[in-house]
Amino acid sequence: MTEPRGELAFIHWIRSQLPSADPRVTIGPGDDMAELRLPDGGRVLVATDTILDGTHFDARRDPLPDIGWKALAENLSDIAAMAAVPVGAVGTLALPRDFTMAQGQDLFTGLKRCADEFDCPWVGGDITSWDQRLAITVTVLAHAERPVRRSGARAGHCVCVTGRLGGSLLGRHLTFRPRLAEARRLAEAAPLAAMIDLSDGLSTDIGHLCRESGVGVCLEAARVPVSDDAVQLAARDGRTPLDHALNDGEDFELLFAVAESDVARVLVLDLGVEVTVIGRFVPAAEGCTLVDSQGHALDLKPGGYEHWR
Amino acid sequence: MTEPRGELAFIHWIRSQLPSADPRVTIGPGDDMAELRLPDGGRVLVATDTILDGTHFDARRDPLPDIGWKALAENLSDIAAMAAVPVGAVGTLALPRDFTMAQGQDLFTGLKRCADEFDCPWVGGDITSWDQRLAITVTVLAHAERPVRRSGARAGHCVCVTGRLGGSLLGRHLTFRPRLAEARRLAEAAPLAAMIDLSDGLSTDIGHLCRESGVGVCLEAARVPVSDDAVQLAARDGRTPLDHALNDGEDFELLFAVAESDVARVLVLDLGVEVTVIGRFVPAAEGCTLVDSQGHALDLKPGGYEHWR
What is the ipTM of this complex? Predict the structure, then answer.
């Protein structure tokens, strides 16, 4: 007997176990961050992510400060996806027993540099050790007057993306800068109907956004901004640069929906990173498609990495 | 060249790297939870803890629902230590690749049962997988009008503890009930000057509380409440029951300081768990001592478990 497995099936099952409504939970599972209402009336956003040696980094090869940077930066990217402001971070380090104090300090130095750079106070955590590989979990708290959800995209909205995609494995996945300031400037310039950060790969993450919004999407292949890294990787492995841009994970760029009448307001911003319109959201019944340079519409299938399959 | 190592030295170094004051950080590292002030004026408490297969549990032997329960319950115990109310929890599961969906569900069922029992909404997290052992990290958010800190104990205050200590390894470390309701009732009955939950062992945790408060302590060995589990374990391993009660970890009972004039108000409560006065806080210069049944004062040394030594 086979059983459905994988991160997404498990998350789906977990969500089915949770109560549908709790007045304290103003944004529940399914978005980049959850939001909770505090007894004193305050509202706080929270997200948590683990990175594992051998999966998200390679401790034998990658610089420890970069690993520390990544552990916090990928959480800050979730804050960017809500157009929110960091409030603080905590984290736990599960250290291999033979880790030295100098290695621990190198790791924390990268975490701390990221915390300082993005003005997110580090307020504590937990240190453990074991005879297994390094695991780092960071949790971030944030706040937004109006958090941008995944669920607000509507048919007709433009699909926009920051930066250039694909090939982050060549190094960018460790050293990327979360788009915190860019997200807030975009949200100030125009109402963003929906937003997500690209962690699993464009083809997978746009599926998350479409599902939460109840829409489909039509992307134009020729408009997808392909990074130099994607071109380099493609030259090595025989896949196309577009394949890398669509399906590689860990770009940590922003994908967002904006009404056509507002799109000029985001395109004129001088963000220091390009913003590209790569397609349109469409009614859910039309599904998710990619139009190639010959005008053929292909099914856009989630091609990103899925854990525990 | 030897280098200082271990969880405590590393945490000490990390604290030395952090800015001493940030207006957003109302309680910084060094307490059971940190507290942050949100841009909307709200205040939120946060704590995070990891449990690791082979260190905090044994996935070959311990029931998966109990492991899930423990992952959340030990975080809720930190909330109890601040006399706070849970607001929500998130968590990350790093699953061994051969974990089955049924195993994942068993694990989550225990987490969820704990979340329901203590009214702490579960609002999401992250699932990853790897070729290493199971690691679970939970982060909890909480709120208290007046959080009870570790730093308020003064010479002359009584040292109180809930429950009976030692031998949790026989099973209680997986199935304990965090003292959330008890902590709030204690804090309502009398001003608690300081509090901590017993996770590393009485002899170690009282040191944390003394250090943060700038006091010493004098405990009476005969008053330390010894659990039946400690007696059982002692019969097996030749250590004394008192040694287990002083030095075993994961009791998850509360240790707190209360003025002598207030102590009667906590002792008369019917909490469903005993509260025992086990000694007095003293000036820091007098150090930490344990008076044995013959009236001899011995040095009270931290004898609990320390990670990464």
Answer: 0.95
